[in-house]
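REVIEWER CHECKLIST
Item 1: Sequence provided? yes
Item 2: Single chain? yes
Item 3: Sequence as submitted:
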Amino acid sequence: YTANFFLMAKYRSKVEFVDTVCISPNFYDVYDSGCKVEGKKSYSGQGAPLAVKEIEEIISPNADVEFRIMLKNVGSGKINSVTLGQARLGSEDISCQFTGDQGEKSVKFSGEKQEAVIICKHLLKGQNSYSTTLSIDFLYDYETKQQHKLRLIK
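Item 4: Structure as written out by the authors:
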């Protein structure tokens, strides 16, 4: 006798993302012997179904830095929702929210759209460039299904 059976797992998990970024209050990209802003960075191989795929750093003339962070489901299952946890630039909290929402700290993933963008902003202090850490954590609800065959032999 051969029969199909399905395994389904639903769970909530947390992803912590940390990277070193260059902060340069100088809008005109003058090298000051500190560090050089990379603009866009791509990432892969983080080990969780929810991954940071790309970060874009934008320095504005009014001494603000903006990070555009692209999250994507890279697993074989489905992410139902993502909630933004703590976000820090060095030792300071930074303001973050999902795009398209009015100050929302969570977003629902639906169907084929298994990605989201977060905007983080921070007012810069000082005049010289420096390297610091950007750290953000996310809670997400994940669901995965697998089909298997079971064969019983008498």
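Item 5: Key structural point noted by reviewer: Residues 68 and 119 are 5 Å apart (CA to CA).
Item 6: Recommendation: ____
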